[in-house]
From TrEMBL:
This is FAD-dependent oxidoreductase. Keywords: Oxidoreductase. Residues 5-332 form the FAD dependent oxidoreductase domain. GO terms for cellular component: cytoplasm. It comes from the Bacteria. Gene3D superfamilies: D-Amino Acid Oxidase, subunit A, domain 2 (3.30.9.10), FAD/NAD(P)-binding domain (3.50.50.60).
Length: 351
């Protein structure tokens, strides 16, 4: 490729999504990945695109809602362009209700969701039936939301790469793959390494890597809703697997090694859902996820580096936030429009 109009550093979900948003507007894009696509947290297995609870509303929750609502059409366009299936489906989510106090709160949230979710999704309290794909509920009630969706992280990255290549984008990966110079504005979506670079540049912590572990089990529940049980995600995928995740670890010996903490997660999932007891484990994953100091994504101009932009910090919500984060950063880079960036996401606030 000749000198690109835009260079994106990082081929995780945020970098590839930004590149896709750019090529859809006719921009000539180069993506540079110093390892391999999905080498960081985007190469995991869980793929739960789930909303925050509908209460104490703020800019972050409103931004996430917008992104989750636009995700279906966004991923459909990716599939149409590249011919690869990201495994996206808005199948909803079930959560058990622990007791009477939790039941009262769930009803309040259901009423709030009717307003905040604009009638485009529901948060409902429903009776438990004891069906095989239901978590046990001590109260006899479950929360069912229709906003939650899922995708297969690795398939989603492959779908984005196929769409980008079909559109003529250049993707360079591996050590030494970066050219000496690359043209146009530069978007830095480099995850944990990027947070380290921001820390060095700012002279104060920008964020850290938090280790996560997750697993895939062979069990075909592809049309069933995902489950959220006592902090544990159980996510059926379209290929006949079920993802279990994830841990959040601030101390570790090897960030890429799985251990007994993952075994505990698998046991918890099987206790929550007996139909998984005999399901074999087909994959185990561990890696670092970028958590910004603010715990919100960071999006905006890189301070003191004209023409450079930050797209980072999608801790646990990166896949769900990616469509709107991508469109927003491209609005900023190409047109100078930043009105959609929440104050809490801006570098001057986060760094």
């Amino acid at each position: 490729m000749a000198t690109p109009d835009l260079t994106v550093h990082g081929a995780g979900i945020l970098g590839l999504s930004a590149a896709w948003a750019a090529v859809r507007r006719g921009v000539k894009v180069r993506v540079i990945e110093m390892d391999r696509p999905g080498a960081g947290s985007s190469g995991g297995t869980v793929g739960a695109l789930s909303p925050h609870v509908p209460e104490t509303w703020n800019d972050k929750k409103a931004f996430q809602l917008h992104s989750l609502l636009m995700a279906g059409d966004w991923w459909q366009a990716v599939t149409a362009a590249g011919g690869r299936d990201p495994g996206y489906a808005r199948t909803g989510r079930l959560q058990p209700v622990a007791d009477d106090a939790a039941l009262a709160l769930a009803h309040i949230r259901a009423a709030t969701a009717r307003t905040l979710w604009q009638g485009r999704a529901t948060w409902a309290v429903i009776p438990a039936t004891g069906a095989p794909w239901e978590p046990f509920s001590a109260s006899g009630w479950l929360i069912r939301d229709t906003l939650s969706a899922r995708l297969q992280p690795r398939a989603a990255l492959a779908a984005l790469i196929a769409a980008l290549q079909a559109a003529g984008a250049e993707i360079l990966s591996g050590p030494g793959s970066a050219p000496a110079q690359s043209g146009g504005p530069q978007i830095w979506a480099t995850g944990v390494a990027g947070l380290g670079a921001l820390t060095n540049a700012a002279g104060r912590p920008a964020g850290v890597g938090v280790k996560g572990q997750a697993a895939l089990l062979r069990h075909d529940a592809r049309d069933a809703p995902q489950l959220f049980v006592d902090g544990l995600h159980i996510v059926p995928h379209s290929d006949g697997t079920v993802a279990i995740g994830s841990t959040s670890e601030n101390e570790w010996d090897d960030p890429a090694a799985t251990d007994s903490r993952l075994d505990t997660l698998i046991d918890r999932a099987r206790n929550a859902l007996p139909c998984l007891i005999t399901a074999p484990v087909v994959d185990r994953w561990a890696g670092l996820r970028p958590r910004a100091r603010s715990r919100a994504p960071i999006i905006g101009p890189w301070p003191d580096r004209p023409g450079h932009f930050i797209l980072n910090g999608g801790f646990k919500i990166g896949f769900g936030m990616a469509p709107l984060l991508a469109e927003t950063v491209i609005d900023l880079v190409l047109d100078g429009r930043d009105s959609a960036i929440p104050p809490g996401f801006r570098p001057e606030t986060c760094l």
